[in-house]
Amino acid sequence: MRIATFNVNGINGRLSVLLRWLAEAKPDVVCLQELKAAQNKFPEKAIRDAGYGAVWHGQKSWNGVAILARGTDPIETRRGLPGDTGDTNSRYIEAAVKGILIGCLYLPNGNPAPGPKFEYKLLWFERLSVHAEALLAHQVPVALIGDFNVIPTELDVYKPERWLDDALFRPEVREAFARIRDRGWTDALRELHPGERIYTFWDYFRNAWGRNAGLRLDHLLLSPELAGRLKSAGVDTHVRGWEKASDHAPVWIELSKR
């Protein structure tokens, strides 16, 4: 079973890229971020024609998350991260797919830091931590997947010294990510590639893709009930080089059967 995450950076503007990758990679489950499309503008027909059912949480021009499942419809279990009823941003959706609970998230960027956007990011992280703990308590297969907007370690960024004051790399953010992970979640990519420099994002500016000046922002965290099934993990980096590509590449894991 292959599960992937892909920040598409505008689903309608990059629909051809998404469909091309789906046809090539044939993932069983896909979490998408940054749809940048209102709820009624999600390209449901095109996705279904490609062989995928979908649930999505749209927002005009910004944010937006979706879960796709090949050959079936995800069963939505939650829309929005609990803990703040006043937060109207579309950054979290949860669904059951083929015996696994999938939480798809798009964590706030937080820049400039310090400032209100950074405080919002830290508060969102706190809410995620509480929800992640509740998910673990169910003792069922769970995956928290998406664009965390966190560079966990120096190995995950091309020049760490240039990112020290950035909201993606500040100590508070890295510590928040580590606290969640260390309570029982497995960082799938790092578990199988502990010493390898791996990137999932390359900015559009300063020829970042050409220089391989990347960051690892997209993560798949697995509950103990799922981590034992992890077989392989990787990044479809070539997709970043396609015409009209997102600035992120798809990240995937392969799981064994129960």
From TrEMBL:
<feature type="active site" description="Proton acceptor">
    <location>
        <position position="248"/>
    </location>
</feature>
<dbReference type="InterPro" id="IPR005135">
    <property type="entry name" value="Endo/exonuclease/phosphatase"/>
</dbReference>
<dbReference type="InterPro" id="IPR004808">
    <property type="entry name" value="AP_endonuc_1"/>
</dbReference>
<dbReference type="GO" id="GO:0006281">
    <property type="term" value="P:DNA repair"/>
</dbReference>
<feature type="active site" description="Proton donor/acceptor">
    <location>
        <position position="147"/>
    </location>
</feature>
<dbReference type="GO" id="GO:0003677">
    <property type="term" value="F:DNA binding"/>
</dbReference>
<dbReference type="InterPro" id="IPR020848">
    <property type="entry name" value="AP_endonuclease_F1_CS"/>
</dbReference>
<comment type="similarity">
    <text>Belongs to the DNA repair enzymes AP/ExoA family.</text>
</comment>
<keyword id="KW-0464">Manganese</keyword>
<feature type="domain" description="Endonuclease/exonuclease/phosphatase">
    <location>
        <begin position="4"/>
        <end position="248"/>
    </location>
</feature>
<protein>
    <submittedName>
        <fullName>Exodeoxyribonuclease III</fullName>
        <ecNumber>3.1.11.2</ecNumber>
    </submittedName>
</protein>
<feature type="binding site">
    <location>
        <position position="34"/>
    </location>
    <ligand>
        <name>Mg(2+)</name>
    </ligand>
</feature>
<feature type="active site">
    <location>
        <position position="106"/>
    </location>
</feature>
<keyword id="KW-0479">Metal-binding</keyword>
<dbReference type="InterPro" id="IPR037493">
    <property type="entry name" value="ExoIII-like"/>
</dbReference>
<feature type="binding site">
    <location>
        <position position="147"/>
    </location>
    <ligand>
        <name>Mg(2+)</name>
    </ligand>
</feature>
<dbReference type="GO" id="GO:0004519">
    <property type="term" value="F:endonuclease activity"/>
</dbReference>
<feature type="binding site">
    <location>
        <position position="248"/>
    </location>
    <ligand>
        <name>Mg(2+)</name>
    </ligand>
</feature>
<feature type="site" description="Interaction with DNA substrate">
    <location>
        <position position="248"/>
    </location>
</feature>
<feature type="binding site">
    <location>
        <position position="149"/>
    </location>
    <ligand>
        <name>Mg(2+)</name>
    </ligand>
</feature>
<feature type="site" description="Transition state stabilizer">
    <location>
        <position position="149"/>
    </location>
</feature>
<dbReference type="GO" id="GO:0046872">
    <property type="term" value="F:metal ion binding"/>
</dbReference>
<dbReference type="InterPro" id="IPR020847">
    <property type="entry name" value="AP_endonuclease_F1_BS"/>
</dbReference>
<dbReference type="InterPro" id="IPR036691">
    <property type="entry name" value="Endo/exonu/phosph_ase_sf"/>
</dbReference>
<keyword id="KW-0378">Hydrolase</keyword>
<feature type="binding site">
    <location>
        <position position="247"/>
    </location>
    <ligand>
        <name>Mg(2+)</name>
    </ligand>
</feature>
<keyword id="KW-0460">Magnesium</keyword>
<dbReference type="GO" id="GO:0008311">
    <property type="term" value="F:double-stranded DNA 3'-5' DNA exonuclease activity"/>
</dbReference>
<dbReference type="Pfam" id="PF03372">
    <property type="entry name" value="Exo_endo_phos"/>
</dbReference>
<feature type="site" description="Important for catalytic activity">
    <location>
        <position position="218"/>
    </location>
</feature>
<feature type="binding site">
    <location>
        <position position="7"/>
    </location>
    <ligand>
        <name>Mg(2+)</name>
    </ligand>
</feature>
